[in-house]
Specification:
The chain contains 3 helices and 6 strands. A hairpin with a 3-residue loop joins β2 and β3. The two termini are 21 Å apart.
């Protein structure tokens, strides 16, 4: 549900086709890491949801170059805002399905982090899914962790 929306969001906005490469171990914190991470943390009475886009910075800069038809050599606040917008679009697409499953998430906190590692570890029994996608310009990961309260 969220994973399909994530790859569709990135591919549609950038005009770069991505395909699923592999599912990564959901309980392994090293899978949930990246040089550049766009993160969204959502809360509801029933659960907490963390969604993340995880990129190598060079891949993200190439992606933005294709999307905006210019060359980028470093991150900027505008490019970080685009990464956050990927999250907003993905959450917007997933929100009805999440609500149908009893999760009434409202928009939560969001931001961009460099050299991100999921420090908390992912508790056993927590629903987590991390998928890697690939294209001609590189790979990215989309992950989500759903922790029931």
């Amino acid at each position: 549900m969220c994973t399909d929306g994530a790859v569709k969001c990135v591919a549609d906005q950038s005009q770069v086709p991505f395909e699923m490469d592999q599912e990564l171990p959901g309980q392994a914190p090293e899978s949930f890491s990246g040089e550049l991470a766009g993160l969204m943390v959502l809360d509801s009475p029933k659960a907490k949801l963390i969604m993340a886009f995880l990129f190598n910075e060079s891949t993200f800069l190439k992606l933005m170059g294709k999307m905006l038809d210019e060359e980028f050599n470093e991150m900027s606040p505008d490019l970080e805002a685009t990464l956050v917008e990927f999250l907003n679009t993905t959450f917007g697409a997933a929100k009805p399905a999440l609500k149908d499953q009893g999760y009434d998430f409202e928009k939560g906190s969001q931001g961009v982090s460099k050299n991100f590692k999921f420090k908390e570890g992912i508790p056993e029994g927590t629903l987590s899914k991390i998928t890697q996608f690939k294209s001609e310009i590189g790979t990215f990961k989309f992950g989500m962790v759903l922790n029931e309260k």
